Amino acid sequence: MLVIEQGTYDAIVEHARKDHPDEACGVVAGVAGSDRGTRFVPMLNAAMSPTFYEFDSGDLFQLYKEMDERDEEPVVIYHSHTATEAYPSRTDINLAQEPGAHYVLVSTRDGADSPAYDGPVEFRSYRIVDGEVTEEEVRVVGSYEDTSEGEH
């Protein structure tokens, strides 16, 4: 199960809406071994594409350097789908190289990018290990100390 703080959930959704019609992408880093993403890091989609995302290699190198210095790891790796459901594509599965990470997909296909940002979004999380995709429950909490709040 992915437990994610409301502020981080909102930031991921806002990034996906803002970058539409291109796919948005980023990482939520956290203390190594904690499974708690605490540092939201929106990244530039170097592909600038509505159907594909690619982290800028320099930005990604810098992020991993920072995570190493802070004893962090990528807890969540997220990106958006702008015209399809929030399910990993074959390309997404092939690119998944962090077996401990939660892979979050946000779909903005049904008007989530409208000027009022009032369209629905689909927010789903997966584990992807050795090409096998397993969907997991997402629980959104006010803080990690409060795990009894509502689920999305």
Automatic annotation (TrEMBL):
<dbReference type="GO" id="GO:0008235">
    <property type="term" value="F:metalloexopeptidase activity"/>
</dbReference>
<dbReference type="GO" id="GO:0000502">
    <property type="term" value="C:proteasome complex"/>
</dbReference>
<dbReference type="InterPro" id="IPR000555">
    <property type="entry name" value="JAMM/MPN+_dom"/>
</dbReference>
<keyword id="KW-0482">Metalloprotease</keyword>
<dbReference type="InterPro" id="IPR051929">
    <property type="entry name" value="VirAsm_ModProt"/>
</dbReference>
<protein>
    <submittedName>
        <fullName>Proteasome lid subunit RPN8/RPN11</fullName>
    </submittedName>
</protein>
<keyword id="KW-0479">Metal-binding</keyword>
<dbReference type="GO" id="GO:0008270">
    <property type="term" value="F:zinc ion binding"/>
</dbReference>
<dbReference type="GO" id="GO:0006508">
    <property type="term" value="P:proteolysis"/>
</dbReference>
<keyword id="KW-0647">Proteasome</keyword>
<dbReference type="InterPro" id="IPR037518">
    <property type="entry name" value="MPN"/>
</dbReference>
<keyword id="KW-0862">Zinc</keyword>
<keyword id="KW-0378">Hydrolase</keyword>
<dbReference type="Pfam" id="PF14464">
    <property type="entry name" value="Prok-JAB"/>
</dbReference>
<dbReference type="InterPro" id="IPR028090">
    <property type="entry name" value="JAB_dom_prok"/>
</dbReference>
<keyword id="KW-0645">Protease</keyword>
<feature type="domain" description="MPN">
    <location>
        <begin position="2"/>
        <end position="132"/>
    </location>
</feature>
